[in-house]
Amino acid sequence: MAEPKRVLLAGCADLPRGDGDEDVLLPALAEAGCKAEWIVWDDPSAPISDADLVILRATWDYAGRRDEFLQWCEAVPMLRNPASVARWNTDKAYLAELSAARLATVPTEVVPPGRLPEWPAGEFVVKPSVGAGSRGARRFAADDVDGACEHLAELHADGHTALVQPYQADVDAHGETACVFIAGRYSHAFVKGPMLSGAGMDDSGLFVAEKVHAEQPAEDVLAFAEQAMDTATSVLSLRRDDLLYARIDVVRGVDGAPMLLELELTEPSLGLSLAGDAAAIRMAEAVRELLDG
Question: Superkingdom of the source (predicted)?
Fold first, then answer.
């Protein structure tokens, strides 16, 4: 009997076994002939060199030390998604690049230290370009430019480039639709409620608590998510199946058309626990195909 493949799921010190979303994945990986265990990404004793594959899952403390995190990613022999994808995707300035590639995105102004933006006419959001779990993101009323300037100055003082975006009111009514792709193919979707409307932090302190539920996306939302996958992989010069996983967060604009809020390719929650065994099996099979390829 062949030895099982060793797969490591990378978490962080505050969530060394993730947030529970992968609990359904571990037995599916075992069924696929993989021995899976969790590691903390910056633990020097983690058995990286012995692994057949390392999967970024809950490395949600990287934002304050992104350079260190990316150096670690580049030192891992077999990482998914790859280190080059993590470097591109952990700075949300990628939204401007996707917009330039003619993908409908939430209008985004990138504001480096020393600059002021053109403030949107209505409600708007100011957030760091490098961040996870909505930390550092704040929503402002149209007439609260003073408060926004203060928050922007704090972000800049901490060395952050900021993003300024008009707030998408449709989120309050319908949330964000997260379309999950595994090995380039659509798997399942779930809806996340608004996170900038007074929601508190999770107990870990790493992300804003979310209300989520599984949902079949509307046809136009799914078609848009497919387009987003094609655009992103074209920009990255990758095939779709080079991405073990992807999460496309979609909202509707004022005209009702779908547009991209975020494209999560590094360490997103995939909603596996919401989608049940079928999604976990798809993920495990994709891992096995990758290892056998």
Answer: Bacteria
pLDDT tens sequence across 182-202: 999 999 999 998 755 554 444
Under the phi-then-psi rule, with left for phi > 0, alpha for psi from -120 to 50, and beta for the rest, what region is 212?
A: beta
Q: Do 142 and 122 form a contact (C-beta atoms < 8 A)?
A: yes
Give the pLDDT confidence of 39-88 residue by residue, as tens digits.
999 999 999 999 999 999 999 999 889 999 999 999 999 999 999 999 99
Burial track 125-135 (b if 16+ CB lie within 10 A, e otherwise): bbbbbbbbbbb
Is the dihedral angle over the CA atoms 100, 159, 14, 8 positive or is it negative?
positive
Name the residue among 186, 167, 46 with its Cα closest to residue 107: 167
Write down how long the chain is: 293
The reply to whether CATH 3.40.50.300 applies to domain 5-90 is no
CB 136 within 8 A of CB 127: yes
Beta bridge partners of 11: 40
H helix runs in 177-271, sequence order: 219-236
* In contact, 220 and 177? CB cutoff 8 Å: no
Q: Distance between CA atoms of 160 and 64, rounded to whole angstroms?
A: 10
Query: Residue 127 above 80 pLDDT?
Result: yes
Looking up tokens 């976990």, which residue turns up? 280
User: What is the topology classification, in CATH, of domain 170-275?
Assistant: D-amino Acid Aminotransferase; Chain A, domain 1 (3.30.470)
Residue in 143, 139, 192 with CA at minimum distance from that of residue 167: 139
Place of tokens 């799921």: 9
Residue 279 has pLDDT above 60, yes or no: yes
3-state secondary structure of 280: helix
Which residues are registered as beta bridge partners of 245?
Answer: 182
pTM to 2 decimal places: 0.91
